[in-house]
């Protein structure tokens, strides 16, 4: 498959929530069996959302909360392993730093911790279950 250029942009929840929802429903609710009532919360209204695109097709999303929490990082299956997650995370980290958020935090699925460690995050908790999936809390400090 010939890849178009991957790019990430800040999304508008009001305008783009159908695309954001499509990606998160596919990854979290359909693939990982996260209950819908745990996936959708009031934080979506106040978060800065990001969309990753191949050409003009949305393939990934993530959000940044005002306190520096990063979450809902998700990439559609056919685009995994192509650095889409890296591009999303670099955009989120850049936005967090621009906003003066010197510490970024996230709850990572245990199977994804190496990905986040490559981006400078460190595990700061014991393993715990969230939506039936093993997670750990991770933190990154900006220099």
TrEMBL record:
Record-annotated N-acetyltransferase domain positions: 6-143
The keyword Acyltransferase appears for this protein: yes
EC number: 2.3.1.-
Class of enzymatic activity (EC top level): transferase
Keywords: Acyltransferase, Transferase
PROSITE patterns, sorted: GNAT
Transmembrane segments: none
InterPro entries in the cross-refs: Acyl_CoA_acyltransferase, Bact_Acetyltransf, GNAT_dom
One Gene Ontology MF term: acyltransferase activity, transferring groups other than amino-acyl groups
Annotated Pfam families: Acetyltransf_10 (PF13673)
Name this polypeptide is given: Acetyltransferase
Organism in which the protein naturally occurs: Pseudomonas fluorescens
Lineage start: Bacteria, Pseudomonadati, Pseudomonadota, Gammaproteobacteria, Pseudomonadales
